[in-house]
Structure formats: C-alpha cells, structure tokens
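Running log. JK asked me to keep both predictions on one page so they can be read side by side. First protein, sequence followed by its tokens:
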Amino acid sequence: MRRPTTTIEAPRVRRAVWPLLRDRSSVPEARRLVRTQLADWGLAEHSDVAELLASELVTNALHHAWGKPILTLSAQGGTLRCEVRDANPALPHMSHTHHDDEGGRGLCLVDRLSCSWGSDRVPEGKVVWFELSAPPKVPAHE
C-alpha cells in the first residue's frame, strides 16, 4: 500500500452555543459572550465588529420573532460565523429607512460590515447568520 506524500487535515472547527433569554438583557449578554469567546479563541481583534453584528441579530430576534433565541459562534479556517436561531419562520429583509428613523438599520449594518450574511428556514423556525473573515494568525519567527 502506498502512503500519501501529503496529508491534508480538515481545519479545526470551534463552536460555542448559548441559549438566550427572551429579554432585552440578552443583547449585552450576547456581546459579552462573543467578546469572551473570541478572546479565548485568540480572535479578539475581530471582537468589535462581531459584537456589534451579533447584537443586531439578537435584537432583531427579540423584536420580530418568538421563543428564546439561540446564539451560535463558530470559527473554521479563516471564517468566523455567528448565527441566531429563533422560532419564527419568517425570513428578515432589509428595510428602507429615512434619515430621521431611529431603527431599522440593523441588517444594513450586517450587510455593510460582514463578508456575507443570510437567513435559512429550519424546522424550528429560522437561522439568521453573518460571516467575517478571520484568517488564522501566523506565528512570528524569532
């Protein structure tokens, strides 16, 4: 039997899942969870944008859905993905806002600041997600 000359290993997948309360206190809690998890994974430099966008998705789930949202954060290869699952199967859409509107800009922020985003229906409702580019750090040679 011939041995392979090159071995390719699947990239390590990191994943964290948190059920959240159906309460506005879940928005700062989601930001804290994202910040802490990214620091644990060595990806703290992506925390500001990830926290902001995660809080937008959680806020949308609290305002437009029912049931308790579930926050999932994963990192694989050079991609950081954040998902918020809720029990409402209705998919979100970006609103057309006016300059004096106080709300309705959350998905516009997600669209502008993420590499990609979307929503998918699942048997329990829907998942709204975004992805950020988070290339692994290359260790410096001493």
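And the second, directly underneath as requested:
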Amino acid sequence: MKNVLENIRTRLSTITEFNYTGEDWGQLNADAAAAPEFPCCLFNISKASYNDLGKDPGQTPKNRQSGSFRLKLNIADQGAENRSLSWAEHILMEKVHQALHGFSPTEKCSPLKRKNYKRLKRSNGLIIYKVIYTFEVTNV
C-alpha cells in the first residue's frame, strides 16, 4: 500500500493550487500548530476488504488475495466562507478528479473511481470536502 499512497501523492502534487498534499494523520483535528498550510489535500486509505483467491505455490506470498479499498481525501481551505461565490473548493475538486479518476496507482490496481463526496463546515469556519474514491488490487 505504500507504493499506492506514494503514487497518489505524486499525482496530487501536480495540482499547484494546494499548499500541502500528504497523508491524513489527523492534522485537521490537532491543535493549530499541527495544521497544514491551506488549501490542502489530505488523504488515506480509510477502509479495505479482502477476498481469498486461493494459493499459488509459484508466488510470494503463496496465499493470493484481492482487495477493495476506499481512498478518502479531505480537501480543506481555511477562510473559504469569506470568498463569496468563488467556488474555489469546487475548482480544486474538479482538478483532483481530473488527476485521479481513471488513474491506476500501480500495475496491480484498478483505476480509481469517484464514489461520493460530503461537505462539512466546522464551527471554526474550516470547510472540508470529503471525497471518496474506490479501487481494487489483485494479488495483494
């Protein structure tokens, strides 16, 4: 999964409007000193399920599996409520979609497909768009 996350980060880093792109380890929930520069795109694999495909003695590991994964992105911008009708987050979401939808992070991965998104506005004014992509991996 490390290669998958690294390749997704590389792909997202082409979006120059983000001041920070990286793995989500709770920066938006920590104190202000840990917060990244905005706008930012934080991501992680938030859910996975596996299916057993059997054994292949010629492979390592011998037990073969396929997996279905959920990639969660948090697109956040502080102070977005002060920009009337700029649609900045929607522009960022579209750029993320252009970069990720149909992109296969490794040769064993299916292309990423956007599944849904949700808008959250926190009491501190931070607006976060949670965007979900799904993909599958074989022989994991």
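Observation for JK regarding the second prediction: Residues 43 and 72 are 5 Å apart (CA to CA).
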